[in-house]
Every structure is written in structure tokens, then in C-alpha cells.
């Protein structure tokens, strides 16, 4: 059967190129904010005139839209309330040609802000405070049972500058590659780890993935924090593999370079972070407080406070805005262990019997080989 040439050449993005004035429930499109391989982002207003962001993805893109997963995770992260460091989800839906969701209108992402700075870097006083907020958002996500698996500067955004409550808050977003690592039992009111796979596909952005990802290991909480550290190294002036294009070369550098070389231009108070990461597997809880204290010390060493201006700000913060939770110097949030997981789940009876049978077969095979020898 002949294929219509126009249909064959149709751009999947046409599915999400909406006209100004199109309505989604009580939200009306005002203008396009961004377009990328993922889809489109629009500025919308509700009936009261408040502004929000609408994200839409075509169902015809390779792999389909990830918005359904993103919306599911955002609902769990918000749990019906507006949570700091996480955009609020207001509406989501699926249509024949696209999926969409309406959420909090945010500002610029960290990559955009970095690229506009001299030498495309932040001062230590800025990236240390940004890092604490990113760590806060990640720990909150982990405490809800999810790992992000695509930590990069583009996936952290400041609040919209017109939103006084959120303008100086870093928000974590884009959960299209996220995965649950733990499940909650309503009957026992306890969390248990999800059993790791023997091998896992590569997930993430090459520049920022932890070494574990290159070994095709299951990603855990530590891999998100490891990626965050790589982001901070980039914000400080650049990663050792910053300009390397070939995947094999990037992987080799991550495997071969010493921790000291990776952290060469970073403050000495952060030298214990990677050695700690190397002691953890995908089940084990990272020491969030260790990372927090290191970043807080960088801020103090630079003579900054939580209310000091960020590099891109031209005026002092509004003193009427109450301090956010990340600004607490004792790091109490980072001490909390909400889910209490630090190892694999208990093996059920069937799995245990299967493992024992496998061990017995290996033992028999070994005796058979020895007998032949």
C-alpha cells in the first residue's frame, strides 16, 4: 500500500504546536515559551489571570510521551500540597496525539544562568547555596521512593522572578527517566527496597552520570547525588571531560581518573564526598548531611549567607520573605531518614529456594569438572 508522502514527512512536533487562545480546562494559552526535542512549553493563564506553564509532548515521538510518568511522580511528590523545590501539578491529561500537564510557572534553568556568566561559571558562594537546594530537592524525591536518573543543570530551575515566594528557590523537574527504588506498604506502614536488576540499561546524560551507570549497575540514591556533584564541578569552572565528545573517552576518564584529579579545583572541604560514594551500593542511603555540611562550609568560607545575592541578582532579596527550610544551619532535614532503607529487601521463600538450587547446581558442576581433571 502506498504511503502518503505528506503523512510520511509529518513532523511529530506539529501535534503540540497549539494556537494562541486554545483552552485546556480553565487554562488558556498565551504564548510559546520553549520548544525542544521533548515537546513544547507554553505560558497559560487561568480564569483569574494567574500564570502557569503548560508542557505538551507528542505521542508520535520515539518512545512516546513521558508526561504520564512525570505527572504521576509530581502528584506523589506534592501529595496534594505545594512543596518547596517541587513544581505544583494543577492539571494533566492524554489526548490521541499528545499528552500535557499544567504546572507552576518557573524561571530560568541553571544551564541558562551559567551560560550568561563571565567564563560560564558561578562563584563558589552561589553554587554552594544552589547545591544545598538541589540536594534538598533530591533528598525529598528519594524520601518519596524515587530516583531521578537524569540530574543535569537543565533539570533544575529557579522560581519565576515575579513569584516572591519561589523566586530564589531551586526546583527539580523533568522526571521522564525517574524510577521507583522503594515501595510503601499501607498495611505495615513501612518501606521496603525494590530488588535491583542484575544489569540495567544506560539512563541519564553522559556528562553527569555516575561511574556506576557506565558499569550498567542499578541506580540508587547515591547515583543522583554523584551526578549532582558533577553538576557543581561544572558550575565551578568545568568537568575534566567537559569538551570530550566521544562516549568511550568520557567513560574511560571517569574510570581512570583519581578522585583527587576529579576534584582538583574544588574546595578542600569537599574532598571526602566521592570516597563516601564509593562505599555505597544502590540500596544504601547516602550521607546527605555530609554533603550538606561540605556545601555549607564552602558558603561560609566565601563570606556568604543564605540571603546573599546570587550571581545573577542585581538587588538584595526581599526581607519580608521567610527563610526557607534549606537555610537551616543545623541541616535537620538532611539528618532525617524517612524510609529507613539501607540494604536489599528480604528474599522471599521462592527466591531463596531458587538461589539455593542454583548454588547446588554450581557446586555439582564444579565437582564434575574436578573429577574430569
From TrEMBL:
Residues 27-300 form the Protein kinase domain. This is non-specific serine/threonine protein kinase. It is an enzyme of class 2 (transferase). Signal peptide: none annotated. It comes from the Eukaryota. GO terms for cellular component: cytoplasm; microtubule cytoskeleton; nucleus. InterPro entries: CK1_Ser-Thr_kinase, Kinase-like_dom_sf, Prot_kinase_dom, Ser/Thr_kinase_AS. One of its GO terms (molecular function) is protein serine/threonine kinase activity. The lineage of its organism: Eukaryota, Metazoa, Ecdysozoa, Nematoda, Chromadorea. Keywords: ATP-binding, Kinase, Nucleotide-binding, Serine/threonine-protein kinase, Transferase. Its EC number is 2.7.11.1. Residues 308-373 are annotated as: Disordered. Belongs to the protein kinase superfamily. CK1 Ser/Thr protein kinase family. GO terms for biological process: signal transduction. Residues 329-338 have a biased composition (Basic and acidic residues). SMART domains: S_TKc (SM00220). Pfam families: Pkinase.
